[in-house]
Write a structure and sequence with these properties.
With 259 residues, this protein is α/β, with parallel strands linked by helices. It has seven helices and 13 strands. The strands form two sheets. A seven-stranded mixed β-sheet has the order 1-2-3-4-5-6-7, with helices on one face. A six-stranded mixed β-sheet has the order 8-9-10-11-12-13, covered by helices on one side. The longest helix is centred in the last third of the chain and has 15 residues. 45% of the residues are buried. It comes from Nitrospira defluvii.
Length: 259
């Protein structure tokens, strides 16, 4: 796996881990993010069981295992957090957060360690990074695509972790970490969103909330990152979509399961 620092200011840092050229073909590529503040870390959507060793090895370049204080899961899918028990085996003191709707479901990922989850209420909440760190905000993203779903906004960095919203199934030969040509990138997002987003109303509601936040960067769990003018273009594109209207054929670009 590869990693890159997305934001660095004083003692506050964002790192993305992803783009694994050695992953099995049947495992969809995911982005894992970590926020580090004064040496203490918050891990966002830590990923699936299959990639746990690679994520751990890459993360060790930036932070010690005992300094991971918080894990945030945007929703319940296995590519999001099936590795959760493995992280807790190494550091049982990690505080884990996900929607209250999924606490009983995510607990099924336990492989021995007891997964105790802090439930996020539907309206969202503020979560502290570490023991004395600043707060980030869990932003409601219900039905985009999960019925209990959250994005996460960091006001210091101006970065929004969007989970599956804005995700793209990017082929390896065009696996740019940051979107440089939005029009070209749409082809990798369209099939994913038309199939996995069930509610146009919910998606437009999320766009309105994000416009009010005015993030400088949007980081999805799959695909490439949006920054600068592409943040606004992504929001405009999402607002124009009519989703949740399956008509009997799966787009060829969406033949691989992704959630």
């Amino acid at each position: 796996m590869q990693s890159k620092v997305l934001f660095q200011k004083d003692d506050h840092q964002w790192v993305v881990i992803g783009r694994d050229p050695e992953k099995d073909d049947h495992v969809i590529d995911t982005n894992e993010y970590v926020i580090i503040h004064r040496g203490q870390a918050m891990l966002l959507d830590p990923g699936g069981i299959q990639i746990f060793p690679q994520v751990l090895a890459e993360l060790a370049k930036y932070v010690r295992m005992q300094d991971i204080k918080v894990i945030f899961a945007s929703h319940q899918d296995p590519d999001i957090c099936s590795s959760l028990a493995m992280w807790l085996d190494l550091n049982p003191a990690i505080k884990t957060y996900c929607s209250w709707l999924w606490t009983g479901f995510v607990s099924h990922f336990s492989t021995g360690a007891v997964i105790t989850l802090n439930p996020i209420p539907d309206d969202g909440m503020r979560i502290k990074i570490g023991e004395e760190g600043p707060e980030v905000e869990a932003v409601p993203a219900h039905y985009c695509h999960s019925s209990g779903n959250f994005s996460l906004y960091d006001p210091i960095a101006g970065i929004l972790f969007s989970g599956d919203i804005g995700s793209a199934l990017v082929p390896n030969h065009e696996a740019s970490l940051v979107v440089t040509d939005f029009d070209q990138h749409i082809q990798y997002m369209r099939g994913f969103h038309l199939r996995w987003m069930p509610s146009t109303t919910a998606l437009r509601g999320w766009v309105q909330r994000v416009r009010a936040i005015k993030p400088r960067m949007i980081c999805p769990q799959h695909g490439s990152i949006f920054q600068g003018e592409h943040v606004g273009r992504l929001l405009d594109w999402l607002e124009s979509l009519e989703v949740g209207q399956w008509k009997g054929a799966t787009p060829k670009s969406d033949t691989r399961a992704a959630a």
